[in-house]
Design goal:
The complex is a heterodimer of chains A (368) and B (250). By secondary structure, chain A is of the alpha/beta class. Chain A folds into two domains: 117 residues, abc type-2 transporter like domain (abc type-2 transporter like fold, 3-Layer(aba) Sandwich); 192 residues, no CATH class. Chain A has 14 helices and six strands. A five-stranded mixed beta sheet of chain A has the order 2-1-3-4-5, sandwiched between helices. Chain B is an alpha/beta fold. Chain B is 38% helix and 26% strand. Chain B is built from nine helices and ten strands. Classes of the chains: A alpha/beta (368), B alpha/beta (250). Chains A and B meet through helix 1 and helix 8 of A and helix 2, strand 6 and helix 3 of B.
């Protein structure tokens, strides 16, 4: 055991003495989160909207004025009928159409409620979500003012429709996505590179001739990365929460446990990559092209899986990040427990075992 | 000269095949305790294969082999604890310090913290490296690194040390100095098994075996070999053997 820890210590020394490694390990997660977070939470300004006012009474005119004078929106045009809505969106300038039902003011007076429909172009899911939220906030504000004036409580019933992307995949997607990407990159790429480096330098031979067992060597190489990846996971969760308000509704212990499972998966992938490559460069290319690109493109991180061609949907089944993203989204956003994500968890466990099994076989063949 | 000498390596009918290719074709030899045994041959003659088998890295296809009294097939753990190894590629970690390297390998071979501190101090004193204790290996000149690598390879006082082309890419003066270190180790009773393709180094060995195409073409003391082939130095011995061999095959 003492042999083993001395070896682990040496591995930590390698990491802490290499500025590039340190940068990838700790700089990358923070920069990525800020980068994505900044792009996504960018404030909206001068968004073009269209209004279909079927009632044109004092109430709707006042509310329209309030929305347009807020500074967030510019009235691109008034439209006359529902048929025009589709065309307006297809032109591409208008992001949102606000529809007041006919007899809005009268209905409000008589029943205390009236309907507003907000239709947003959700092909850009994040903007659509922001636009709708801003509009709703303005409407709520208007309702409060009216209530104060009249004394009798009134209520607007907004109906929101997101066109082209009903469930708004993409929002809150980036923190789970970044977590999935960074953890697999750090654990798989960094471990494969560090194992292959020993092969390249010839120190692997020296280690194999020593009384250390092959399993101890591999374990010793990956142990520091388990620790560092875990620190990364925690950093991402904390930053997501503090900087971007990403909630953790479910059990934090479950969340961390799933992260560790995913890290182990990444490590076993890294070991597998290290058994099939001879140079650090190869290991890096394989990690980048086989892990990072698919993670971004096929895991649903950026592009909704439902909208992919069938073949790519099948391919995405093989992507570990897809399942991890589903799991942590469920835990963080919906607060679900293991009961609801056991299937995805099982998939990750099976994948980990397969990768480990394959690399043990590869490793043995190489030794004979 | 070897009547009462103990054997430390015994190789009987060693064969190692890669597919149809015989890298080691029926090798038979013994290495005696305390001697410097030169394992010579051209590149691709099968030296590295043999050394890997003797170190327990590769399994032989067939043959009976004992290293340091242990069987190569089922006692590799014991063998590994009793041997040292230094490869043609450099075997210390460049991005950690002199002392950290010593501590690492001392630890891997199961030395106690006290022993490590003691032997590290002794080693650095002998190599005149005391002022470089906390320097990174990468900052040392190649010759120093090599000396240090050898000292680290025998830090745990193995019965036997394998040197796989330890002097590759080094100038003759540094090579000569490196051999002084090998003699010192031999004086301490450590058997040295060294592969090389520098024929001047062959002169420094107690006995040499010359490998051609996976077989041992000849094995004796350098002076006996020179006498047998009627030449002045080992280089000519080697050239004669390497030239004769293919003719015999034809």
């Amino acid at each position: 055991m003492k042999r083993f820890w001395g070896f682990v210590l040496k591995e930590f020394l390698h990491i802490f003495r290499d500025p590039r490694t340190m940068l990838i390990l700790f700089g990358m997660p923070i920069v990525q989160i800020l980068l994505f977070g900044y792009v996504i939470t960018n404030e909206i300004k001068d968004i073009k909207i269209a209004i279909l006012d079927q009632s044109k009474d004092p109430v709707t005119i006042e509310l329209t004025n309030k929305i347009i004078s807020s500074g967030f929106f510019i009235l691109d045009r008034n439209i006359k009928s529902m048929n025009e809505v589709e065309d307006v969106f297809k032109e591409g300038n208008v992001r949102q159409v606000i529809i007041f039902e006919s007899g809005f003011g009268r209905k409000l007076k008589r029943e205390g409620t009236a309907n507003i429909q907000l239709i947003a172009d959700a092909s850009d899911a994040n903007t659509a979500n922001l636009v709708v939220h801003y509009t709703m906030a303005i409407i709520d504000d208007f309702v409060r003012e009216q209530n104060k004036l009249t004394g009798s409580p009134i209520q607007f019933i907004p109906e929101v429709r997101m066109l082209y992307n009903n469930e708004l995949k993409g929002v809150y997607m980036f923190i789970p996505g970044i977590m999935a990407m960074i953890l697999i990159l750090v654990s798989a790429m960094m471990t494969s590179i560090s194992i292959v480096r020993e092969k390249e330098l010839g120190t692997m031979e020296t280690l194999l001739v020593s009384p250390l067992r092959p399993a101890q060597i591999i374990l010793g190489k990956v142990t520091p990365y388990i620790a560092l990846s875990f620190i990364n996971a925690v950093t991402i969760i904390i930053m997501g929460n503090l900087v971007f308000g990403m909630p953790v509704q479910g059990s934090i212990i479950l969340l961390l446990a799933e992260s560790i499972l995913y890290i182990l998966l990444g490590l076993s992938l890294g070991i597998l990559i290290s058994t099939i490559t001879k140079t650090q460069q190869n290991a890096m290319f394989i990690s980048l092209f086989a892990l990072m690109l698919p993670t971004i493109l096929l895991s649903g991180f950026i592009f909704p899986i439902e909208n992919m061609p069938k073949i790519l949907q099948w391919l995405s089944i093989l992507m570990p990040p897809r399942w991890f993203i589903t799991i942590i989204k469920n835990i963080m956003l919906k607060g679900t427990g293991l009961m609801y994500v056991w299937k995805e968890t099982l998939i990750l466990i099976v994948m980990t075992s397969v990768f480990l099994g394959l690399s043990i076989r590869k490793f043995k063949i190489r030794l004979e | 000269m070897s009547e009462q000498k103990e054997t430390i390596i015994t190789v009987r009918n060693l064969v190692k095949k890669f597919g149809n290719f015989k890298a080691n074709d029926n090798l038979n030899f013994e290495v005696f305790k305390g001697e410097i045994f030169g394992f010579l041959g051209a590149n691709g003659a099968g030296k590295t294969t043999t050394i890997k088998i003797l170190c327990g890295l590769w399994a032989p296809t067939s043959g009976e082999i004992k290293v340091a009294g242990f069987d190569i097939y089922n006692q590799t753990e014991q063998i590994k604890r009793n041997i040292g190894y230094m490869s043609q590629k450099f075997s210390l970690y460049e991005d950690i310090t002199v002392f950290e390297n010593i501590r690492l390998f001392g630890g891997i071979y199961g030395l106690s913290r006290h022993e490590i501190a003691h032997r590290a101090a002794d080693l650095m004193h002998r190599l005149d490296l005391e002022h470089s204790r906390d320097k990174l290996i990468s900052s040392l000149p190649l010759g120093w690194r090599q000396k240090l690598a050898f000292s680290v390879a025998i830090l745990h006082n193995p019965k036997l040390v394998f040197l796989d082309e330890p002097t590759g890419g080094v100038d003759p003066v540094t090579r000569r100095k490196f051999w002084d270190q090998i003699y010192e180790a031999a004086d301490r009773g450590i058997t040295v098994f060294v592969t090389t393709h520098y024929m001047d180094e062959a002169e420094y060995c107690d006995r040499v075996s010359i490998m051609v195409d996976g077989r041992i073409a000849d094995l004796d003391t350098p002076s006996a070999l020179k006498g047998k082939y009627g030449v002045k130095n080992m280089n000519e011995v080697f050239l004669k053997i390497a030239r004769i061999k293919p003719d015999q095959n034809n």
